[in-house]
Amino acid sequence: MSTPKALNGLNGLNGLNAEAVRGSVAVVRRLTPADLSRPTPCADWTLADLLAHMTVQHRGFAAAARGDGQDLAHWAQRPLAKDPVADYADAADDVLAAFASVDRPDRPFALPEFKAAQTFPALHAIGFHFIDYVVHGWDVARTLDLPYAPDPALLEAALPIAHAVPSGDDYRLAPGSAFAPPLQAGDGGSLLDRILTTLGRSPSWSPACPS
Question: What is the pTM of this model?
Fold first, then answer.
């Protein structure tokens, strides 16, 4: 996956990513322990599963930004903390601080969950993280039946990255994949709807009708 030329600026992409991550923190803060068993737009994942995934991905990307991403321990799924909301917020702060310390767009990030024997330039790796949290913010909001309305400029930047995510790879069909094969977009869909359908989400998904 490549990062579109419009985002070929590390500071600009970091700012957009921080906005998406902080938006996800705001919606995660709305959940209660009783919500953790709810189904989510991520097939076969409860909200507890999704939150655990989101938390550990922050930790893994933070390690990658600091040059230690090849250690699989940073990416290992773990049980939710006693206070999962506070733990998520802490992980979000950690990754944003780590990304802010990246000094050049070509700094290599080891992302073994993507490809074990390959590194990715920082600009592309942060782009991966950005699109994840634009979509995962929506996932949590829909699970809790809350509104989700990122700034249009953020969505305009996210759409070409969503289109750049490979759609023919088997990983989209693998159990536990964050994204599913693309869905047919309806006529006149919003920017957010187009991002969601590109990454296999139905904009009409709801907890009451999860199929």
Answer: 0.90
